Amino acid sequence: MGCVCSTSSSEKVKTPGYEDPTILASETPFTVSEVDALYELYLKLSNSIIEDGLIHKEEFQLALFRNKNEKNLFADRIFDLFDVKRNGVIEFGEFVRSLGVFHPNAALEDKIAFAFRLYDLRQTGYIEKQELKEMVLALLHESDLYLSDEMIESIVDKTFEDADTKEDGRIDEDEWKAFVSQHPSLIKNMTLPYLKDITLAFPSFIARTEVEDSE
Amino acid sequence: SNLNAFDIISFSSGFDLSSLFDEK
Question: Which residues fall within 8 angstroms of residue A94, CB to CB, at 6 or more apart?
Answer without folding.
Answer: A17, A82, A83, A84, A85
